[in-house]
Each structure stands twice: as structure tokens, then as C-alpha cells.
Structures
1.
Amino acid sequence: MKIVFPGSFDPVTKGHLDLIQRATKLFDEVIVAILTNTSKQNLFSLDERLSFLQQATKAMPNVKVVAVKNDLTVNVVKKIGAQAILRGVRSLKDFEYEQEIALINRQLAPEIETVLLLANPEYSFLSSSMLKEVAKFNGDVTEFTSVEVAQALKRKLVQKCID
Ligand code: ADP
């Protein structure tokens, strides 16, 4: 079975990667779809986010990463020919949000199931926003993400301070 993991991934964290890794053991193919979340302003471009995720998942043979511009998740899932959507739950707050999205998606495409995986407790505090916040104040983020992302965050935020 093919499953699509949609998200902003701005940028990818070890929490996302843990979820992807675990999903590769449950599904034949995991397609990570980088989508636009209109309620969030992105720090990294779609291409940058694609490159970080491709790098970070290159040792996982049944993972594919795609970047999608302006499309609904359920349409992406149908176009890819997948049967399910993967999302992660770190807390009750996440659960309420994910439940809402899952119910809307179910209304739009009842044949597509949403699968929620609980976050690894080691990473349940970790979000892309938290990562950016720590990096902004010069904190060390290497243990929370890939080497490429940690370096890019440093460059990007230094650049922002100069601008
Ligand atoms: P979105 O803007 O679509 O919420 P995110 O990149 O923030 O995109 O998150 C994508 C998915 O990954 C969401 O289901 C989110 O709950 C999940 N996720 C984010 N961080 C973690 C983490 N540390 N552990 C497990 N799941 C996570």
C-alpha cells in the first residue's frame, strides 16, 4: 500500500524523519508531499525544502519526495495513486487539529483513509517552528534536524539579520 505524508516541512525535523522511517516499515511506499499551508509563512522555498528532504531520506529506498504547488491533499493522493494519508500526533492539541483535517479529507474523498501515528516521545516537543526559534537565537539545532538543515538555518538567519 502507498501512503502520502503531506506537510509544510519548513524545514524537516528529526520528528518528521522518525515518522517517515516508521512508516516505511508499515507501507510499501511512502511519498512525502511538500504542500503549501496558506496559514503559515515559509522560511524556505519549495525547492529548498525538497532538497533537504531528498538528502535526509536518500538511504530509505521506499521513500519518494515530491513538491506540490497549490493543490488539495486529497487530489495529490489521487494523482499519485495512493490509498492513505499519514500524519503525526504529538499532543492532544495536535490530535484535535489532525482530526479536523482528517474529517474534511474524508468528506472530500471517503475512499482515502487517514493514518495517525503517535510521535516518538523523544521528539514530541519538536516542531519546525521550534527549530527556527532556537536557531534564530543562535541555539544549536544539530540534534533536532539534518546537518544540511542546521547549516542552512544558520546561513538563512544570519542573512536575515544582515538584510
Ligand atoms: P503542516 O503545516 O501540514 O502541519 P508540518 O510540517 O508542520 O506541516 O507537519 C506535518 C506533519 O508532521 C503533521 O501531521 C505534524 O503533526 C507532524 N509532525 C510534526 N512534527 C512532528 C514530530 N516531532 N513528531 C511527529 N510528527 C510530527
Note: The mean pLDDT is 94.
2.
Amino acid sequence: MVSSERYILAIESSCDESAVAVASLSPEGCFALCAHQISSQIDTHKLYGGVVPEIASREHLKNLPLVLDQVMTTSGIERTQIDLIAVTRGPGLKGCLLIGIGIAQGIGAALGKPVYGINHMEGHVLAPMMEHPELEFPFLELVVSGGHTELLVVKGVGDYQVLARTIDDAAGEAFDKSAHLLGFEYPGGAALARLADQSSNSTFTLPRVMRENREFSFSGLKTAISQLIRQQGVRADQDAAVRAQLSVAIQDAILDALLFKLKLALRETGLTRVALTGGVAANRALRERVASLKGVELFCPSPVFCTDNAAMIAFAAAARLKSGLLSGTALEVLSRWPVEEVCQ
Ligand code: KG4
Ligand code: ZN
């Protein structure tokens, strides 16, 4: 056990959010977030209807130093007090990860402090524990974001059993692509969900998404929506009532797929603690439906820590440090890095 507070500087740049956090870990193992900031690039990528990797890298190069300065100032911590640097090493967009790693290495070299590569998914996986220290291992978790959909048993730090993941689109991607078909501006998922929440039951029905398979699959949903729109001759982009009704049906179909496999996993594992994380975990209906499952105790991060952020990277580094698992400073980018392959 260390005798004084340790300060962690964390950097996240795996996709289209430039994020920095400073956190402390007390000798007793208590984690505290000193300051954090997220600079989103959505307004830039909106123009292209999706994330453009090359532009995202250049935005990180521009934004990260500014965010870093602001976070350091807000934290009240001097750079020389930083004990270690944690940076997202993967999975993610190669060019984007390289910018974050390069900046982390520069700071590490200047301060003479170690830089550790953290798995972005492990950040998401452990994020619910940051605000809920009472959440104990093992628990079931749904990681649902724009890039990932995974159902896993979280057995301990670095000990993750993936029960199912998506074979094509992620849940957030399904929300966004469906939203695009209804004429919403990119990314559209949250706007579609908001409209669905305000609307009554839908007269439209969509096929239930791949219930019987072990893995998740959402790509058929786009086809089903396009067919429905064509067959019924409806114009979702022009008719507000149709758009609202379709939003309800789409949200229902996506949540049904998530709930179906979650319920199966609850039965099979006998676990009762459930965590939701990733951008789609901000979805109000999803939280409500999971919370209403009999005997389930639900844990979710605040919405700001559901989406990509650097606080979760600092927290994952702290959890590894406490467990004696923060070792190795290999930093080559891993654009593909399944969470179950994170070493123990
Ligand atoms: O975790 P995240 O910020 O980025 C990735 O790592 O992918 O998740 C972003 C995704 C987007 O697809 C967005 O549309 C979706 O999360 N999202 C939502 C909601 N809020 C964000 N989807 C459904 N309902 C929401 N309330
Ligand atoms: Zn993410």
C-alpha cells in the first residue's frame, strides 16, 4: 500500500471525443475525480453523416492540448504532482489513438513518469463502479455504444467473460442508422429515443431482431424499416406523426433484442446485479425496462460517464493499480482489442 495520494492523468481519443481527466487514488484505495472534460467532435462529423477518421485525428491534435490545459487548471494539481499517465491504447480508430498516445508519451517523458495503455472497453466495463463503489463482483453488464454491443459477466478487474456481442451493427449504430432513415440529423439515436419517449404506442410493428441466435445482430432492422416505409408508402421525413410512431417501433425492436438476451443471461447465471454502460445506456426506456425486471439491482453511470470519457480510463487504471495489474508500458496501438483479452 502506498503512503500518500497518487495522481493519475488520463487521456481518451479512441473515436470522436477528445477527453482528459485527473483523478486521485488515496492510500486506502479511494478513487476521486479531480477534474475532467470532454470535447465532442459531433458538430464537425455531422456534415459528413458519420465519423471521418482522418478529420477525427486532426481534431484530436487540435483539441487535446487545450482540454489538457483546462483540466489541469481546474484540477488544482500541478503537472509535477502527476504520478502516472493512463491512455486509451485500443480498440478504436488507429490515427485517433496515435494522437492520444503520442501526447501521453510526451508528457510522460517530460515528467519522467510511466505511461500505461488502457483498454477502452475495460474503461466502459468498470465505469459503473466509479460512482457506485457498492457494486460488487460478479455482475452482468450490457455495454451498448455506437461502436460496441457486448453482454458480459464481470467477474473481477481484468476478468471478463463475454456472453454475446454483435456480429454487425452495434445498438447505437442501429439507433443512428434508423434515425437517418427517418430524416434525423447525425447521430440521431438520442433524438429518436426522445421522440419515442414522448409518443404513444405504435401502430407499426417491426420484426423482433435475431432473438434465437447467441450473438446480437441489428443490421436487418434497417432493411425492415426501409421495407415498411416503402410498402406503406409513408414519408417519415415529412409526416411528424409517422416519424413518432416509427420511432416507438424502432426503439422497441432494439430494446427487445437487448432485453431478451439479458433475461436469458440472468436465468443462466443466476446473477441479480446488472450494470448498463456505453452511450445507449443513457436511454431512459432501456434503464426503466431493466430496472423493472424482477429481482434485478441496476447500476448505471451518470449519462456523462456512459459516453466516451477519460474519467473511466483513469478509473480503470486505478482499479488495475489497486489490484496489482497495472504493469507493462507497451503502447503500440491496438485498433482491435477484445476486452476478454485484456491481461489479468
Ligand atoms: O459510447 P458512445 O458515446 O460512443 C461510442 O463509443 O460509440 O455512444 C454513442 C452512441 C450513439 O450511437 C448515440 O446515438 C447513442 O450512443 N445514444 C443513444 C442515446 N444517447 C446516445 N441511443 C439511444 N438512446 C439514447 N438516449
Ligand atoms: Zn466507447
Note: The pocket of zinc ion (ligand 2) is lined by residues 120, 124, 145, 308 (CB under 6 Å).
3.
Amino acid sequence: MIVVFLGPSGCGKGTQAEYLKQNHGFIHISTGDLLRAEQDNKTEIGLQIAEDMANGKLISDDIILALVNKQLDLYPESSLLFDGFPRTLPQAEALENVLREAHKEISCVVDFSVSEKDLYARIEGRFICVKCSALYHDPHRMPREHGVCDVCSGTEFTTRPDDKPEVLAKRLEWFKNIVAPVRAFYKQKDLLKTLDASQPIEQVREEILSFLHL
Ligand code: AMP
């Protein structure tokens, strides 16, 4: 099964993706995580994208598609969950082409709808595990044991440098302008399922599971 999560940063898609990965065997392909890994490893791409990432700007389609294609080659048989991709119409079209060649298709595009006020509140409390990037939120989603990551038992946490209100404002602006055609693209294909992502995590999860017939 191939699923796309569409929604701005902080809408909760990372948390839901983590659930599907842990409980339903999805390979979670987050282009944000792939880009951050390039930065952490100081690759050529990592150095090239540093400034745009820090400013919340979109990274070029060429770079994104190269990273995604690498993942598609790595996991030819798995259920895939795309998170934060596609974000532009050319990315959506390129994904269609690659999948068609592999005789695959997207089952569902989950559209996370959430107010700007909620997004700012979520971003403000967000922190991640340094070792495995598991997402937490103070006070809504704290690790079960204080200071210890639920997923990998790591004990170091950090915040993302682009999780600042002024950068979020830019990311939202880009999101609204650029993602609108992506949403329309999938709506036209009758794949788009919009949910109210301001609901509690469990309710959002139930809705996603029903969309995916899981
Ligand atoms: P995210 O972790 O999805 O919030 O992404 C963090 C940042 O990575 C974004 O603000 C963009 O700078 C970049 N990024 C992630 N995914 C994409 C994408 N599909 N296309 C372009 N830029 C992206």
C-alpha cells in the first residue's frame, strides 16, 4: 500500500506516521528527515541545502526526487508512507510516473487540516530524540519515562532549528501557495481524504485507519 500524508509542519503527520510504521509495517519516507540526515552527514547535498532549510524554504525538486528515488529502490516490496512529499506539483507528477513504471499506485492521500493557531502551539512545544528523531511535545506527548526516548531509549533531546515562529510563518506561506495544486491534483484523482488534525491524536489515528481500511 502506498500512502501520502499531506499537511504543514506541526500538523501531527509525523506522530501518525510513527504509529503506522511501528504497528502496520510501513516504511516511513519523510523528505524532511532525509534532508536532515544529509545535513547531519555533511554530504554535498547537505551543505548545499543548509541555508534554505534553516529559512524554511522548499528544496529543489531535483534534490528531493533523487533522495526519494533512492528510497524507492531500497524498498521495492514494502508499504510506503510518504510524509512531507510530494510538496509541489512536479514532485506529485514525478511520483506518479515512477509508480506507474513500477506498476504501483497511491491508495490514499491523507490531508491534515489544522488552524494556524494550533500549528504555532504545536511547534512551540516540539522536541525530538537526537538518536532516532522520535517526536515529542511538551506537554502533550512527553516520553513515558522522564528524559528517556520511548523508541530507542536515547537520553538526548533537541529542538529543530527551523521550529521558530518566524520560520514557521514562512513555511506556512510556502505551504499554502505551493501545496494547493498538489491537493487539487489528488482531489481530481479521488484520492484525497481530508481530516481535522486539531482533534486528539487517538481520534486522528482512528480516522486514518478507517481511510486505509486497517
Ligand atoms: P518537514 O520535516 O517535512 O517539516 O520539512 C522540513 C524542511 O525540509 C521544509 O521546510 C523544507 O525546507 C524541506 N523539505 C522537506 N520536504 C520537502 C519537499 N518535498 N520539497 C521541498 N522541500 C522539502
Note: The chain has eight helices and eight strands.
4.
Amino acid sequence: MLLKTPQLLSIGTDNGEESAEAERQQHLVRAAALLARGAPVAVPTETVYGLAADATQPLAVARLYEMKGRPAFNPLILHCTDLAHALELGVFDETALFLATTFWPGPLTLVVPKRSGSAVADIAVAGLDSVALRVTGHFAMRALARHLGRPLAAPSANKSGSLSPTTAAAVSEQFGGELDLILDAGPSSVGLESTVVACLGSHPQILRQGGLTCEEINAALGTRALLATGESAAKGAGQVRAPGATLNHYAPRTPLRINALHIEPGEAALLFGPQSLEGLNQASAVRNLSLQGDLKEAAAHLFQMLRELDQVGAKMIAAAAIPNHHLGTAINDRLTRACAATHLSR
Ligand code: TXA
Ligand code: MG
């Protein structure tokens, strides 16, 4: 089979120089034209890179599922230009509206009841009567949805079950032969997927930990604080699940162990903070998520460093303990899943 090479078009960052603006617009117009024809385009966001398709074209969305090898019952996030656009697609209660106005644009996805009569293809929401909506902090996805005049269905740009990409090169590695175009804005600044919150019942509920911390959300919500998954039944709020939040998500190919206190010969080490681990000099490769012990920096590095350690041919990746608060809970969530995948499939 002859594989094509995707074109990598640089669209810079939000704070790019004025002179690059015209070129950036040209690239976005070209990407929107591909999307309008039903072709997928990889697009940067501040969380991770997404694989985008016009959410109103069932065939284009089906192609995303096919490319990702994703079970069709796992619905996609719809990316909107702004809150007004999102309000056309979903029904926002008071809490959802508050969260959207407080945290959008940003690393937050809201699951709300689907508004009837919208043009979104059923396959994009996997036939559910709720929708996951997001207005990203990076301009690219918002600008593309505006150029296209439609919402974009965009899951993370990785094969189902593997690590989300935080660079254009990581997207190219997985989908190089299947994509015409990857928009490149450098490494994703947050590096973890968006936090998913459902506003479907009496209490907002966290479905997936991510780039926006529970502490930040709860500080804003005050007395309406988030329910953890599992807490909901007790409060009579009904159980909502993120269909994609299965245990064996987010796995590198190399087995992984967490809370490592020492390194065995030949293991690849993933450290956090200034302290070393016993046996580190025998590691086949070492990465430190953040020498300063900064959780935000660690989140931004997590997937890229896991990907790098995955490529050194180690028998095991040993990850040091990460403090379990703020972004640390989302980092630990991803590491625990990768670790569970080790136990499930090997
Ligand atoms: O950071 C992110 O969120 C990235 C960027 C590209 O936006 N996207 C991403 O999408 O991670 P994806 O498809 O890999 O994950 C979306 C998650 C899945 O766990 C899915 O099950 C959940 O959102 N989800 C989508 N629609 C839902 C719904 N109606 N109810 C509950 N969960 C839903
Ligand atoms: Mg994903």
C-alpha cells in the first residue's frame, strides 16, 4: 500500500507575531476546505491534539472511528466556536452555564442534554441523548469550526487505547499515512485531556479527570460541588458514565508500574521532583516529569515522556509516586490506567 505523507502546516501559537497571521488564516482555510469535503484533519488544542471531522457528516465521523479503531458506542466531543454555538447543540442548566462562562475557553468538556433538531450526526454522539461540548483554549479548533460554520467532532488523535498525542510528530507517527493535513502549533501546553463534567441531573458529576482540576472547579462551584463518580447514586443523582473511561485506556506498549521506590536493572524510569530513586544508575532510560516538582509541568510532559520511554525497548517503565492532588490526581489516573492495562493484557 502506498502511504501518503501528511502535510504539516505550522499555525504557531495564540501569541504569534502579526506577520504570521495571514499565512495562518490560509492554513485554516485549507484545513476547513478538507473538512468540508469530509476529510479528517489533525488539530492542536491546549490539552492534546485532536482528530477532527465535520460533526454533521456521518461518513466523515465514521471515518474517525475507523481510523482510531474505536468502538462505535464511545461518543465524541463536539468542539464549538464559542458558548453561543454550544448553546445551539446542548441544553444548559444553571450549573452548566456557570461552568461554561467560568472556564471556557479552556480544558473543560461539559456533557449536557442534546438539543433536538441539531444537525449533528447521530454517530458522533453514538446515539445518546446527551452531548459532550467543548470550547478549547487554543484558537485553532475554534477558528476551524468558525471557518467551516459547523461543530467539529474531535477525539484525541491516537489509536484507541494508546497515548494521546501532545505534538504534531506524535500524531504523524500514528496516522501519518492516513492524513492529508496536520496543523502544527508545537507541544500542547496542558498535555492532559480535558476534564469531563456531566450536568445532567441535580448535581454536576466528574466523568474524567483532566487538565482542569477538581479543586479549581469546586472552588468556583462553592456549595454545588462536584460529585465523584460513585457518589451520585447515594445522593439520588443518577449514575452517568463516560463510556470511554475504561480501565485499560492510555497505555504505552511497555508494561508500567507505579509508585516505584527503586529501579531494577534495565527498567525505564519516570521520575517526579528532585529526589532520585535507588538503582537509578541501572535504568535503561530516565525522564523527569518536573525536576522542580511542579504538577502543571509534569502534566504537560506526561504523554510525551511516556511515549519516549516506550521506545527504548525497556522491559518495564517504573514511575515514581506523584502527589495525589490538583493535576496530580489526573496524572495518577492516567498512570493507574496504563498500569491496569499491563495487568489486563499481558
Ligand atoms: O482534551 C480532550 O478532551 C481531547 C481534545 C481533542 O478535545 N479530546 C478527547 O476526546 O480526549 P476523546 O474522544 O478521546 O474522549 C472523550 C471522552 C470519552 O471518554 C467519551 O466517552 C466521553 O468524553 N464522552 C463523550 N460524549 C459523552 C456523553 N454524551 N456522555 C458521557 N461521556 C461522553
Ligand atoms: Mg482519547
Note: Residues 37 and 60 are 9 Å apart (CA to CA).
